[in-house]
Structure formats: C-alpha cells, structure tokens
Write a structure and sequence with these properties.
heterodimer; A: Rossmann fold; 7-stranded parallel sheet; two-stranded parallel ribbon; globular; B: alpha/beta; Rossmann fold; Luciferase, domain 3
Chain lengths: 379, 927
Amino acid sequence: MSNNEPVDDRSLLGAGAPPSTTDKNHPVVDPSVVDQASASERVETRVETKTVLVTGASGMLGGAVARLLLEQGHRVRTFQRRPADIGPGAETVLGSLTDPDAVARAVRGVHAVIHLAAKVSFTGEWSEFVATNIDGTRTLLAAAKSAGVRDVVFVSSPSVAHFGEAIAGAGAGTADPERARGNYARSKAAAELLALAEDSPGFRVAAIRPHVVWGPGDTQLVERVVARAQAGRLPLLDNGAALIDTTYVDNAAAAIVRALERMEQAHGQALVVTNGQPRPVGELIAGICDAAGVKAPAWSVPGWLARGAGAAIEGAWTAAGKRGLVKDEPPMTRFLAEQLSTAHWFDQRRTREVLDWTPDVSIEDGLRRLAAHYRRTAS
Amino acid sequence: MVGKPLWPGVDPAWSRRVRVPSTAAVDPAGSAHTWHLLDNGPQLAESGIEPAGTLLCVHGNPTWSYLWRTLLGAAGDAVAPWRVVAVDQLDMGFSERTGRFRRLEDRITDLGDLTAELGITGPVVTVGHDWGGVISLGWATRHRAQLAGVVLTNTAVHPAGFGLPAPLKLALHPAVHQWGTTTSAAFLRVTHALAHPPLEKDVKDAFMAPYRHAARRTGVGNFVADIPADESTPSWNTLIEVAEGIRDLDVPALIMWGPKDPVFSDRYLRDLMDRLPQADVHRFEGAGHLLPEDRDIATPLFTWLAAPVVDQASAGERVETRGGRPKAARPARRSVETRPGTFRPMLAELHERRTDNSPAVVDMAPLAAPGAGPRTLTWAELAGQVDLLADGLAGIGVKAGDRINLLVPPGIELTSLIYACLKLGAVIVVADAGLGPAGLSRAIKGAGPQFIVGIERAFVAARLFNWPGQRISVTEMGEAKRKLYGIAHTVPELVEAAAAGSAANRPVVDRSLLGAGAPPSTTDQSAPVVDQASASESAETRVAPPAPDDDAAILFTSGSTGPAKGVVYTHRQLAAMRDTLKDTYGLEAGTSLVAGFAPFALLGPALGATSVTPDMDVTAPKTLTAAALADAAAAVDATAVFASPAALANVLATADGLTDEHRVGLSSVELLLSAGAPIPEPLLAKVQSLVPSATLHTPYGMTEALPVTDISLDGIRAAGTGNGVCVGTPVSGATVAIAAVAPDGSVSDQPTTNPGVTGEILVSAPHVMDRYDRLWVTQRHSASVPGWHRTGDVGHLDAEGRLWVEGRLAHIITTAAGVATPVAAEQAAETHDGVRLAAVVGVGPVGAQVPVAVVETLPPATKPGTAPRALGEQVRAAVARSTGLDLAAVLAVPELPTDIRHNSKIDRARLADWAAKSLAGGRIRKP
C-alpha cells in the first residue's frame, strides 16, 4: 500500500444510505426572519447550478457531500484513487493528490472545490502526512487558482487547534501545527493555514472542521468501536464521562455544502461543525454498540494509564508497521486516549450564524438510522 | 526575562522618582530624599485627560506601592478617570534609605512634603492599608481643604482598648524583632503568606524585590518598632491625634475589609466605624490581610467614587451632618412609599394589653425548667417581664443602637428579650444554629455585637471561636462556668436587679449609661406618638422610644448562596412585616398560633396573637412531631399554625402518634402556613388531611423580604404545572416585577410586569429590608434598579399576575439557544420513578453552556458517575418533552449537596462546578 495516497477511501455507503434530506437542508427562507440581502442571495445561490469538484469522495463524508450536491442539482466531479460509488450523475477523475497532472485535470472547468481527501491515521511517518495532507493541498490550491476556480472549501478538523487539554464550549481557535497532537492533526493544521492564506475576494477559501463524524458505513469511528467492543478490547476511560461533541454524517455534509452557498460570509474563516449535542463519550460508544447489536464496554481504566499505554503502543505499532508486521491501526494511541478521556465540545454560535444553518439529524435520530443500517446489512 | 514587565501588573510608565525636600523633624534642615512612586498622572496628561481628582495611596509594612497596581490599572478606564499616586514610603519599597529612624509623625510629614512637591491640587481621596492607613489619615486630618474622601483597607488607628494582637506583640519582642523583621526576611514572608488564595510566584517576587537584603529592610524593622502599643511609646501622641482627629472628618469614607486577618481583626473595623460613622463598609468574607491581593477592590472603589455622595463632597458640598456628626451613609435606600402616619410601633399591642390576663405566650418545653410542662405568661406578665428586662439591660449599659446577639431558642425568654431590645432601641442580631458552627461564627463576627445573650451551648462556641461581645447567660450559671465562658451577667440577675430597683423606686437610670453617642431621635411625621398616660411606668420614662427608621434587627440569609449575609431591618420595616402578615392572613388580635417557624413566630406579641412554641428543637425542624404539634395547638386552641416544610414532613411521618383527641384539636385550625421553601402539592395535600378545616398557604419570600407572595393549596392546584413553581400573587403591600434576562445572562434595568418574560424577580414593599449589613457592594447591587429590591431569583409572571419561580439568577443556564432556568427541567426529571431529587446545572462558558442533570436515584447510587444508561435516556427524553432542553449528560450521585438550614435548597453552584470538572474527563470525585 502506497503511503502517499489518500487513505480515507472508506467503504462506500451501502444500500442503507439515509433518505434524501434535501428539503430539510434547504428550508424555505422566511423573509420575516432573514434580512433582505441574505434572503435574495440565498435565492440566487439556489438557482445557480455549479460544477463542483469533490476530492476524497470515496470516503463516507465525501460521498455524502457529493450526493447532496447532486440532489441540489449541481454538476459533480469526484477525484480519488479508486472509483467512488456516488450513483449516476457524477463525473469521476481518478488519481492522487501527489500527481500534479491528475490534479490539474480534476480542477479544469469547475466553479468550486470541496477538498476532503487526506491521509487519516493515528500512526504513520510524518513524511507520509506531509506528502498527502500538506503538499497535496498546496498542489490542489495552485491548480485550482490557475484554472480559475472561484471557491474552495477546505475540510479540516478541530484537532488542528486541540492541544491535549479539555475543551468545553470553546470557539474554533487558530490552527497550530507546532502544538497540535499527532501527525494527522499537525499536517492538517499546516494545510489549513496555507489554504486560508490563499483566501482573497477572487479566490475564496473557507475551512470547515467537522468534529468526529459518524454514520452508517463509517470505518473511522463506528466500525472500530464495534469491532473492538466485539473483541472485548474497548475500555471506557475514567468511566467515559468526558463530554464529546460529534457530528452525524448528513449534518457534516450539509454544513460543508452550506459553506459553499455562504462563501461571502464564510471565506477566510475556520468553522467547527458539530451536532451541538455533546454527550459523555461512554454514552456515545454504548449507543453505537447498541445500534450495531454488540455488547457495550462495561470496564473502565484510568485515563492517565491509557494515555501512557497508548503512547507505548503507538510507538511499537509504527515500528512494526515499517517492518510490515501490522497493517491495522493500533488498539490505543496517546492521541486516541486523549480524545477518549478529555472533554472536547464547542461553541457553535458563530458557525451557525455564519452558515445560517442548524443540523437536522439529532444524535438520537442518527443512532436510529445507524441501527437501521446494521439491521439491513445483517439481513 | 525578555518582554515580561519587571513587576507583573505594573505599566513601566507609572514608575517614577521624585526628589522631595524634607521638613520632617528627624531630618536636618535642607535635607531632601528621593521617592519612588507609581503615578499615572503623566500618562493621563499625555492623553489630555483631566482627572476627577487624586487617589493618594499609602501602603503599610512590609509592602510597597505595588499593592495598589490594580487601582492604577483601573483608574484610566473609570467613567471619570482618577489620577492615582501610590507612594513608596521613605526607607520602604524603592524609595531612598534615609538612614534615620522615621516615626509616625515623620511619616505623616513626609507624605505632606511629597504632595506639596508634586503640586497636587484639587480633590484628594486618601487610600490606606495596614499602618499606611494611619499615615494616610494623618495626611487627611492635616489637608482638610482638599480632602474629598478616605478609603481604608485592613488597618487600625487605635489599639481599640484591647491591647495588641499576639502576632504583633511577638514581632515587637526585642528577642524576635531585629531578627524577624530586618536580619531575616521572615516578616515579609509571613505577610505574603497571608493572601487567599496564595500569591503567584512572580507577584510574591515583586513584593520581595525592594527588600532583598538586610540593609534594605531597616525600614521594615523600624516600622514595627515604632508601633505605638501604649502611652509609653514615642508615637502614641501622634496616633491619638489621628485617631481622635478623624472623628470630625466630614467627608465620605469607604472601608473595605478582609475578615481573615490575624492582626487587624474585626474589632479594629468596629473601632473605625465608631470613629467614621458615615463610612460605607464592605466585608469581603473569605478575604484576609492582603485584601487588595485577595479581591478586586478597584471595581467597588471606582464605583463608590462615582457615586453621588463623593461627587458632592469633591464639589465642596459636604454630606449632610446631624448634631455636628456626619450622617451615617445609607447607600441607595429604597424609595418605597411608607404610608406616613400609619406607623404603629412593634410594642404597641403589648403595651395596650398590659392589664390583660389572658395568655400571651406559651412554652410547651420551657428552657429554664425542662420537663416541667408548659409555662404560660399572660399579656400583663409578658409586658412586665419585658419592662424588667429592658431596665436590666439598660442597667448594664445596653443602649439604643447597640447590637445584641440573641442565641436563645424560641420561647418565652427569646420573645421577652426581643421585645425588651426593641423597647430599648438595641438592635437584635438573630443568627440561628442552622448556619452551622463556622457559618454562625462568621455571621456573628461580621455583625460584631456588643452583647451576646445565650444558652450555655452558645458560649461553648463563643469561647471556641472567640466571638465578640459582653456575654450574658440566659439562665443561672455556676461560678466555675461563668469564669470559663467569661459570663458577665445572667438574665435572672438582670431581672432581679431591675425588680429590686423598681420596688425601691430607684431614681432613673443614669442617662450617661444610655450613651451620649446614641443617635438623637429623628422624629418625623410618622414617628410614634407615645402614650403619655403611661409615663408613670418604669423604663418608659428613661428611654426615648426608638425612631421608626432606626435599626431594629439583623437577620441572616441561609448561606445557600455563599456566606450568610446580615440583613438589617428598621422598626418601620419590622412593623410593616407584621402588618403584611396581619392583612394577608387575617391574623387579627385574638388569633392563637403555633409558632413552628421562627421569623414569623416572633411577631405574635406584636400582632396581639397568643403564640405557643411547640416542644421541638427549632434549629432542627425535623424534630417537630405530630403529637407535639397537636399538644401545642390544644394548649392555646390554636387557629393558626406556622411551620417549615421540613417540620411538616416530619409531622406527616409521625402522624401515627396522634390520638383522636389530638385530631379533634387540630380540626379547629383555620390557617396553616408552610414557610421557608417551596412545598410540593402532594405533601401539602397530605397535611390537609391532618388539618381538615384549615386553608393551607405557602408564602414565598427571602430573609430580605418576608414574605413576597402567597399561594393557597387550591391556588397551587389551579395553577397546575408550568415553567417553575407557582408561588401565587403578591402579599398585602408588596409589588412584584421582572427584570428580563438577556441571552448572555445580563439583567435589564427596566422592570416589567408583562406576562411570560423570564428575568430576575424584583420586589417593592414597605417590609423589604433596609440594607445588607456591612456589605456595601452587595447592597448597591441589590438596589441597583431604583425603587426595587433585586431578589437574585429568576421567574416570570403569568397572565393572571401569578409569579412563577424558576430558580436562582446564579443558576440560569445560558445556552446557545438562549437562557434556560433549571426548575421546570428538574421537575420533569423528578417525574421519573427512579429519580428522588434532581438538579439541572449549566456546564461550559456563558452563552454556550449545555444543561446537565445531576440526580439522586432510587435506590441511591453507590458512587458518583454517569447515570445508568436507560435511566439517563429516559430522564433526557422527559426533560426534552417538557422543556425542550437537550441534556448533555445525566449524572448520578449518592447525595446532592444541600444547605443545612432548610435541608432543601440544593447547592447548584457547587454542583455546576463539580459537573463541569467531572465531564471534562479525569477521575470523578464526590460533589
């Protein structure tokens, strides 16, 4: 497996893709509550059909974004290493971010780019993250700019501004490659900074940071939780009380697409997107296990122990990975232990104001959809 | 360190040096010294700002001008900017080491030399801390023309007749002095360690910076050596000159005090208040000697400076004086209509019934003779007892305006003492044991009574906690115990002496004992007309009755929202409380009531109602049994019962002990008042079955306003459920309004009575307290909406004008979707069978909080943590259905923290803090 390619080509959404939420994502504008300018502009964006490039559309979130754009009547082109099953209507350019020619082909003739492709992993060599996440983003931005693309939504992560301590109701914060934890977050932080530095009135760039995206078909969080719980390898840290914000996939996709519509307000900014429903991490994990029909973890280890053990395991795993001994993600890393044992939830007021948007699918609804998905895949 | 200021919090531009010619006696003629100052004057001048005046700040020992940095920081931002000149005294801080032993007189002269050299003209407000307080006041007494005010923090101008406190005695001891203050840095370190919370290291370093070497510390040692401990010390005369000189300062004064000070304890505050009766006082409970480090003093100081009282003074108009003495400042007194002409003194009813031989007060378990069965005093006996007690108290020097702390359980003794004090004009201080020993101790020290009347248990605590005041035992006491507890008198002795005196037709009590310092009666339109016909009878002739607006009583808040606060009522306000109860509940003379709830129970003799104290420990309401209640009711054919919810809960729990006779007796009760905390309808319904003929009422109110509204059981049923607890409509004489809460939690200053607006509950009534005691900042806040008292509770009015209480203002949850109040969500959570008690708190920053429920489960959780999943999900769903709130988490605890007085108010502030910590990750501890 070549390390410099996007690895978030997660399994596709199955037959259980959620029903269209088009109407919900585009509520009829009530002129009494929206000022005249934004109302007219919204009407304008709704009628305008654009050609949008979605990178990393083979992932759960990228796929959801591409489908939502199609539903809204836009022309969609996807760009990733392997074909993405978006359904009819999407054009596909296959290739890697590390290939400037492929990238140039992908951006030709599009109005806007939504950039999701990235190397997402808890372990791995720094150089691999640099190649895909930093250099790849730089390549894409340069190509888009010279191709006359007007707008770019850079899909980032709140971890670019999470430095290990608990976050309780904080704003987005500024990305900091020096202080961010782990290679993924550090490389995304650097990429976000360079993306936002490109922002100008003629080439508008916004960064959207969805936090812990999950949903049917999710291999990053949901399937790992389920697999580990099944194997009895999933402890709760400190009884799982740490409050964590998450984002149901449809909400994350809607916010990203909405950012394109609200580019006038959003460009130049980094916005954290969540469901706005923080929950104790243990409760989320239990909810996911329930939906998947596996037993929820009932044992707890102290967070400090997990963080220490995670660091040790992470080192060993990376070393083993180099020698081809392991291909999987390690069972625990320091980053993961931190994520599972410290609060991280966010103040969504600015995001919702800038995007003029609220999530449609509650955590509870999302878990019901997840359960329905597992029932269908099981039968 | 690069980029870091030399001293944290100090703008380098403030630091300056000035060469000042000296006229101090200690210096040879022609001497001059270099002073170091922190002075924002040049900075203001540069910005073209004309300051309102100058704050002349004088540090004590062993600090330096650094102590005042927050004032400099805030001075430029104040609405009317002030110049702040904070000096380093000579031989101190970074000022010159003069090589001479500068005494108090020299230091006062030094300060005058400095202000002359700086050419400070215009109004000056002096600010002093520690021994700098004396020096600043010395400057004040010698610069009266430009003096606009004085501000003091933890200082003293006189040993106050008590001698020096032990720590200072030690510091002065020759064996310790040189080593402790100069040779070593011990004195500095000990002083710096007095901060609560401890000083940050860089701040500690800054305080230490000018005193690094023994040679730099000579001034520190000399300062201590110069303390004028007694007449023999060289600086005694100057000290007395200052201490007496401030008595006729006619400028406003502000005293900010940290009570946890091992040297300058509350007794020095009381001494200062005696000398500066016009002073606005704020005691910052929990703060200590280094008050400017412990608390933000800049905000209250500049708020005070902006208050009209100081502006007038600086414009040359002095505050109103009376009898040549400055009028005691009554900050922001409410302008409630007081119905002039209708004031009827608290003793009027007792006085009219002085020949009535029907029962006035009944004790089911008399204090003096436990187990002896009920004791009854007729109206005539009670009136006689009150007269004798008043005479007896006057005989030992209790005078109008003195504070007298009554640590006596409800009953005949307490009732007699209260009315005797009201007659004398002595201010009763009533703090109940429900505050707990530490809380009670803080309350008593804060009120600073001149006298304590108590039972033996009270003196055990008085001795242990070193409470102030001359001690008077309510019962006889043997010599050994008297000595042990330092008992000066006993109540039986006082009564005996007074009886002997009146029998021998003793000449009137020496007027000097009644105190030349007692404020003369400010007779006004509504002053009581004393029945001249009664002039023949004893105390009446000697003691002028108190004026309606003189202080009458100090009660204490429950302490469920921070340290208990003293609440001052005047005679007029107590009388208004009586009248409100009378008018709201029809408690006419002739009513007989069971007094199971202390504050109202004390009003029986004022109402002309016969009152009976049941056999119970009133400090522990849970000890009232059904049988004890019925026995008490039977003793007086009670028509009314006052009780607290906790007491009623126990009455229900012990209802099996009722005989048929008991039940018959209770059936004649017409009114049952459950006061103290909201009472759930099911509990009230069960109570109804015990008193079938009674209408059940539950008033809503607080120590500051008793009561505000009232609702009957029928009213509760008619109101049904809603957002909060329906507490009914305003009582007679009271008006209620709402100050809307904005999404960021801030409160509007515009009262509204529009239905459905959630905000802080405001009350206006003649029986609202006069003010908080020695809490200027708190008082100012509570009266900041003109004409109203801010209750700190939140709620709304409905279309029928009923008030719904939604919780405390401090407990509102400021979510991104707007402000939410906890009570409705808690009620929804408590509808779940597995939940015994719920509290909903906000977690996260203001404006972006998420609601979290903390519950006591059935059966109780063994350790704190997230609630069992099914329960958590059901509680979340129930709360969402009824309030729309999305609970982020449901936590279960073995027991919710509650305040001990009512045993019912949940300490939500503490819970919110605990929930935030628990949900941030890490080990979960007990709340």
